[in-house]
Amino acid sequence: MKSHERLAEMAPDMVAELATWRRHLHQHPELAYEEHATADFVADKLCDWGIEVHRGLAGTGVVGTLRRGEGPAIAVRADMDALPIREVNSFAHASATPGKMHACGHDGHTAMLLGAARHLAQHGTFCGTVHFIFQPAEEGQAGARRMMDEGLFSRFPAQRVFAMHNYPGMPVGTLAVRPGPIMACVDTWEIHITGRGAHAAMPQTGIDPVVASAQIILGLQTIVSRNLEPVDSGVISVTQSAAGDSFNVIPQNVVLRGTARSFRPATRDLIERRMAEVTSGIAAATGCEAVLDYQRSYPPTINSPAEAHFAADVAAALVGEDRVLRDVEPVMGGEDFAFMLEEMPGAYLFIGNGSNADGRILHSPHYDFNDEALPVGAQFWVRLVEAALCEDGERYFAGAAA
C-alpha cells in the first residue's frame, strides 16, 4: 500500500491533529525573528518522530532532515511568522497576544508541513533525503535570504525546493501553479523634493514643491502605461505624501513614498530607471531639486518550468486534473521564497483556502486559516516528496534537463 493511501485512511485523525496544531500556533503568534516558542513547538514534534533537527539559522529557523537510503535531496519550506495586527475574532483559538496575529496563514503552512513530516517519518516510501525548512520572518524581513546567507543550502544541499501559500477565494481541494513568474518583486521607493518655502498668498516668492510632487505623481503613472510593453505587467503606487503643517505656508519639502511591483528583471530595471528620469526631469522643470531613493527588496518569484509542471502533475494525481490550475494568474504580492528560487530550481504553489467571506482575506484582522485545507496540503507534500525521490522522479527531471 502506498504511503498516501495510508494517509487517506487516517484522514479523520490527521485532520483533528493538524487542526489542533494549527489552532495552537494561531493562538500564540510571534513576529519576525521572535518565533522562539513556534520553533520549539516545531523542533519538539520533529524530534518526537525521529527526524534529525537543526536549529539556529536566521536565529529561529528550524530544519528537519529525513533520510531514506541513497538518492537525491529535496527541500520543502513553510513560513512561521505572524503579523503586527490586532485580531478581532472571538473564537477560542484567537490570538492570545494583543497586537500580533496569524493573518496570513503561516500557522496553516507550518501545520501542513509538520503533518507531512510526521507521515513521511513513520510511513514514507522514498529513496533520498528531504529537508523540511521552517523559516522565520517571511513578512518583509527576508528570513529566507538570511537563512541562505547563513548557509542553508550549503549545509542542507538539495536539487530542488518547493513552497506553498494558501489562497482565499479559491476552493478547498484546489491547487494552482504556473511556470515562470507567479509573484512580483517587492520594491519600495522614496522621493525627497526640495523647493523654497513662502507665504501661500505670495507663491511667486517661493518654489512650490507641492506642485512639483503632484506632477511627479502623475508622471509616475505614465511609466506603466507608456513605457512597459502592453502585454507586460507592472505597478507603481504612491502610498504616502508628506508636506507642510500650515494652511497658509508653502512648505520647503515634500516626501513621497510608495512601492513598485513587476515580474521580469528587465521590467524592474526599466521602472527604476524611468522613475529616476521622470523625477529629475519634473524637478528641473519646476525649479525644485528631487532625489529618488529606490530600494529593491524581494525579487520576483519565478518557478522553473520542470518543477512547476511536476508539482501540477502531483496535484492532479491527488485532487484530480479539474481541480488543478496549471497556469494561474500571477499575483502582484511578493514572497521571500523568491530568494530560494534564485539559487535552485523549484516551484511555489497556491492551495485553495475556500470562500473569502467572513473576512477570510489575507492580512485582515478577521482572517483565519481554513482547517479543511490542512489534510490536502499535508497529502500534497507527502506525494510530492515520494514522487520526486523515486526512480520515476529522477527520470522525470533528468528528461526535463536533457
Automatic annotation (TrEMBL):
Keywords: Hydrolase. Residues 188-277 form the Peptidase M20 dimerisation domain. The keyword Hydrolase applies. NCBIfam families: amidohydrolases. This is M20 family metallopeptidase.
